[in-house]
Amino acid sequence: SYHLLRGSFASMDEGLRRFQDDPRRYQLLYMTAKAYRMASYWPETLLRGNRLVSEESIARWKTKRKELLVHSRDTFASLRREHTNAQETTRVPNSEILLCNSYFGEADLLFQEGSFKGALEAYRAAANQFINEPESLEAFVQMARCHQELGQMPDMRRTLEMAIDILNRIPEDRDERFEKNTRQSRQGCESQIRWMIQEIDQ
Prior knowledge:
The protein has helices at residues 2-18, 24-48, 55-86, 95-112, 116-129, 134-149, 153-169, 175-181, 186-201. It is mostly helical and 202 residues long.
């Protein structure tokens, strides 16, 4: 339930305070960010299930949802910063996946909040981190969506054309990385990009 999930935050925060130098801290940071994001869905669910709720309660729950989303985004950002700083001195379990998820977790939340300019910069940072890898391709697709939301259609098209160029530069031996670290296969990603370009041209 929502209250059980909220109660778990105290335990997670205590763990983060205790394990400052423990490599498991990074996994705990990721779990904490996900927990805050999961909790942010509960206010909307509660409001949907109660038609008699007052305007004051609606405003209070919307504020709470915003707070939870900000906590989640900030925790993803902390994970990314700490992970980057620790890479040279600490062996981080599941390092690559955690770093990828921290970049996209932060960017996706900015997009979800409607902060499209902030999301655009966050996806651009992800693209720069994973240059010529499947993750950068996913970042470019999301950047194109940000341009679309901002009404920047020429920029959206240019970004998608750049994504096609990147796709052509990714060797076939990286195809497993598509399946492992992104939301689509190589073929699925290419189909999506070409469909988005066609939608602009119509």
